[in-house]
Amino acid sequence: MHVLILEYSMIKISTTEVAILGLLSDRPMYGYEIEKIIEERKMRNWTSIGFSSIYYSLNKMEKKEFVVSERVNVEGKPSRKVFSITAKGESVLKEQISTFISRVEKTNSKFELGLMNLEILSKKEIMDCFADYMESIDRQIAHYEKLEKNLGQINVPFYIPQLATRPLRLLKEEKKWVADFVEEIKSKYPRS
Fold first, then answer.
1. What gap in Å lies between CA 33 and CA 72, rounded to an integer?
2. Is residue 81 domain-shared with residue 169, that is, in the same domain?
3. What is the pLDDT of residues 63-79, one digit of tens each?
4. Which terminal residue of the chain, N or C, has fewer Cβ atoms less than 10 Å from its own Cβ?
5. pLDDT tens digit string along 74-113?
6. SS in 3 state form for the chain?
């Protein structure tokens, strides 16, 4: 097993591919079935998977030998191409998931770039911007509270609601940080 992980450790795959492999690790599925599960689990709240990218990614992963497909006949309907994850796909998936949940990801944010150049704005402009920012935080908090409630009402594994709980906590802390920083701006910022 360790040999497989090392052998594939240089392989780069997209987050869409990771999400699809994760779903296929449950059971073999066809493309539209994957789409239905993405919708049901509200996965587009934390990942960007377009409907057309599902089929594109499945075909791409088949070429990489992460998945295999077979045509399955369905009575009264056209045959379906059903995809299954391979041992290689499972190995790559396991490595990617381990990487994702074991490291803090550095993000290059437009917010930090704006913060670095704060001196370009007047105190009033800054206060207006932070008022808008707080409103956007409040909208995101409302969104994730609704998502948390919805995820609690559907049959998903116990850890899935954390996809709403974690961003909620981060947003609430961000709101505290902004409030503290706004007070500091009021007392220390030289330009009016």
1. 14
2. no
3. 999 999 999 988 888 88
4. C
5. 888 888 999 999 999 999 999 999 998 998 887 778 999 9
6. CHHHHHHHCCCCCCHHHHHHHHHHCCCCEEHHHHHHHHHHCCHHHCCCCCHHHHHHHHHHHHHCCCEEEEEEEECCEEEEEEEEECHHHHHHHHHHHHHHHHCCCCCCCHHHHHHHCHHHCCHHHHHHHHHHHHHHHHHHHHHHHHHHHHHHCCCCCCCCCHHHHHHHHHHHHHHHHHHHHHHHHHHHCCCC
Q: Which amino acid is at 56?
A: Y
25 shares a domain with 91: yes
Identity at 71, one-letter amino acid code: R
Split at pLDDT 50, 70, 90, the class of 43 is confident
Give me the residues paired with residue 84 across strands: 68
Alpha carbons 83 and 190: distance in angstroms, whole number = 62
Q: Are strands 67-74 and 77-85 parallel, antiparallel or unpaired?
A: antiparallel
Among 76, 102, 128, give the residue marking a domain's end: 102
The structural domain count of the chain equals 2
177: Cα within 13 Å, side-chain hemisphere: 8
Q: How far is CA 33 from the centre of its chain?
A: 20
Region of residue 187 (phi > 0: left; psi between -120 and 50: alpha; otherwise: beta): alpha
